[in-house]
């Protein structure tokens, strides 16, 4: 497991990471969420010994990364998929990793297959790879040594929707087999479907952490998204209860739990074709908590 305690990193007079503490448990995917510049990459770089901390520690299975013998067998790391020697082929990158970790060459083929890089693609130089292909190669490299812990910085960047779904499945099953996953993202939607736990960071500080449910409990009012055969009738019925539904796409967005919308529909004999939780709460929470790190002004 991963343990970060009182981690601080100062650059000159600027505090990039400010007294950050959290843990990532085995069998769980932990999402590390925050806007650009929040301090995610710096935190992860400290974890794997690339940036010395100003204060505090980050340990993996109780040890500093630099104290791990053959670290690739313990921790799979993907920080910057583009940071590859462009003249090497994907296969060469993995082969070098396998040699460094003392793994058989067959492991390289297994990994290439797992990340769906074809034999022809694996023989191309990485400078000609798309960002999505580099991410796949990076994930293959991280998993090469069959580690128990994965640290991935924005691994979904550059992946197409099918690629993002593929990665979600891969990380979920890795965690289901007992692995510990920490993955960062600046996009809530990328993480919320997969993360068991979420850590929200803004301006170098942890602003909230917990599972979806406990985060939502602290979030703003619950929202529902609903579509009825007769949206006007539903609007009237909800308005009669003091609610103010707003048009959203083909349906309506209402500031109340889904059960309230369902009840109103039943009471008024209105047929619903779609009813789901709007999740506005979590997104609102994310934007509010990290507002002072956002580049775009957040309208309160
Ligand atoms: N080597 C460095 N020197 C000076 N400032 C840095 C350095 N690395 C990161 N920073 C600053 O620290 C802050 C956090 O950066 P980073 O950890 O990359 O954020 P994130 O990954 O969440 O986008 C940013 O303001 C960034 O400019
Ligand atoms: Mg970053």
UniProtKB/TrEMBL annotation:
ABC transporter domain mapped to chain residues: 2-228
Pfam families assigned to the protein according to its UniProt record, in alphabetical order: ABC_tran (PF00005)
GO molecular function, a single term: ATP binding
Keywords, comma-separated and alphabetical: ATP-binding, Nucleotide-binding, Transport
Domain of life, per lineage: Bacteria
Xref: InterPro entries: AAA+_ATPase (IPR003593), ABC_transporter-like_ATP-bd (IPR003439), P-loop_NTPase (IPR027417)
PANTHER family for this protein: ABC TRANSPORTER, ATP-BINDING PROTEIN
UniProt family annotation: Belongs to the ABC transporter superfamily.
Name of this protein: ABC transporter ATP-binding protein
């Amino acid at each position: 497991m991963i343990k970060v305690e009182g981690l601080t990193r100062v650059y000159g007079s600027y505090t990039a990471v400010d007294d950050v503490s959290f843990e990532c448990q085995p069998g769980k995917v932990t999402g590390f969420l925050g806007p650009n510049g929040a301090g995610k990459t710096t935190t992860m770089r400290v974890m794997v010994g690339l940036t010395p901390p100003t204060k505090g520690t980050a340990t993996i299975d109780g040890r500093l990364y630099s104290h791990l013998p053959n670290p690739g067998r313990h921790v799979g790391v993907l920080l910057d998929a583009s940071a590859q020697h462009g003249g090497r082929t994907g296969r060469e990158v993995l082969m070098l990793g396998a040699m460094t970790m003392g793994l058989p060459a067959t492991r390289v083929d297994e990994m290439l297959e797992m990340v769906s890089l074809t034999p022809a693609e694996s023989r191309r130089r990485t400078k000609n790879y798309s960002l999505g292909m580099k991410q796949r190669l990076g994930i293959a490299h991280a998993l090469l040594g069959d580690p128990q812990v994965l640290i991935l910085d924005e691994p979904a960047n550059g992946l197409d929707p099918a690629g993002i779904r593929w990665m979600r499945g891969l990380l979920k099953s890795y965690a289901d087999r007992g692995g510990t996953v920490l993955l960062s993202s600046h996009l809530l939607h990328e993480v919320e479907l997969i993360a068991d736990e979420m850590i929200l960071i803004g301006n170098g500080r942890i602003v909230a952490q917990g599972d979806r449910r406990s985060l939502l409990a602290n979030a703003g009012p619950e929202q529902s998204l609903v579509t009825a055969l007769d949206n006007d009738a539903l609007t009237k019925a909800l308005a009669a209860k003091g609610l103010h539904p707003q048009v959203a796409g083909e349906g309506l967005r209402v500031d109340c739990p889904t059960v309230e919308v369902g009840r109103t529909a039943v009471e008024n004999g209105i047929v619903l074709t779609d009813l789901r939780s709007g999740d506005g709460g979590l997104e609102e929470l994310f934007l509010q908590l990290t507002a002072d790190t956002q580049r775009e002004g957040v309208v309160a």
